[in-house]
Amino acid sequence: MFFRLDRAVAPHSSTHAPDRRSSRTEYSVAVSIASRLRQPFSGMSHALGAVLSAIGLVILLIAAHGRPWHVVSFAIYGATMIVLYAASALYHSLDVGPDALRRLNKLDHMAIFLLIAGTYTPLCLVTLRGAWGWSIFGTVWGLATVGMAAMMLWRGCPHWVRVTIYVLMGWIAVIALRPISAALPPAGLWWLFAGGFAYTGGVVFYATEWPKRWPNVFDGHDLWHLFVMAGSACHYVLVLRFIGAAP
Predict the structure, then answer these.
(1) What are 218's strand-pairing partners?
(2) In degrees, to the nearest 5, what angle opens at C-alpha 193 toward C-alphas 188 and 195?
(3) pTM score of the predicted model
(4) Of 155, 46, 57, which is closest to residue 111 (Cα–Cα)?
(5) How many CB atoms are located within 10 Å of the residue 52 CB?
């Protein structure tokens, strides 16, 4: 009887031992990869954001059902999301020389201008159209161009200049609040402003770099990244569920 019990238990033990060893190995590999990144949390979180953005773009293009304005605006919006998260992931992950790091930093900041303008694009070209839509579309893309030009040509562009343009672009929609309210249902407006407040709330941590309690582990900049992802998620729901439903 004891012999049979041993035989019955032995295979069970041997089956689970490799699983535990495999889990430990995978965990060790993950820790090893993270330790090689310059800023692990920011790099990995926005790498995930890039992957989710690519998947989200495919879903949006399917949801567009071949409608020209939807396809064009969704493609621009999805592409700018991918660019932002990919640029951010590269900048925060790669441990490269000072010159390369400075270029990646510029690309990271320039991509923020692109995402803000890209997020407005479906709202302008599908929801609003007409005079309001084209006016806001031209304004936000004009500001994005100015911001990116400042990043490229203005050596040592002050931190506050970028942040001011980010916030100005983000909230310029309030000048068209009445036509936007007429075109979107209350739930759509909620997602629009929820995303705006998430981005703006994150800017506080981005500008102040607070908290600084766990440097190189999790700090104010990492918290800003989470706010950015939350803002992107809110606006993605807006585009997919409400702007996508527009004829």
Answers:
(1) 214
(2) 100
(3) 0.84
(4) 46
(5) 17
In single-letter form, the type of residue at position 19 comes to: D
Question: pLDDT tens-digit profile of 23-73?
Answer: 555 545 444 455 567 788 889 999 999 999 999 999 999 999 999 999 999
Burial status of residue 226 (CB atoms within 10 A of its CB: 0-12, 13-18, 19 or more): middle
Which residue in 126, 127, 118 sits closest to 67, CA to CA?
A: 126
Amino acid in the structure at residue 46 = H
For the range 151-155, what are the long-range contacts, defined as Cβ-Cβ under 8 Å and sequence gap of 24 or more?
151/106, 151/109, 151/110, 152/106, 152/110
Interatomic CA distance for residues 187 and 241, integer angstroms: 10
Residue 203 neighbours by CB distance under 10 Å: 16
d(CA 94, CA 148): 22
Q: Which carries the bigger pLDDT value, residue 132 or residue 15?
A: 132
User: Which pair of tokens denotes residue 188?
Assistant: 């759509």
Q: Answer for the pair 77, 119: CB distance below 8 angstroms, yes or no.
A: yes
**29 Cα distance to chain centroid:** 26
Give me the helices (H) in the chain, please: 2-36, 40-63, 68-93, 98-122, 130-153, 159-171, 177-183, 186-208, 220-237
Nearest of 235, 239, 191 to residue 74 by alpha carbon: 239
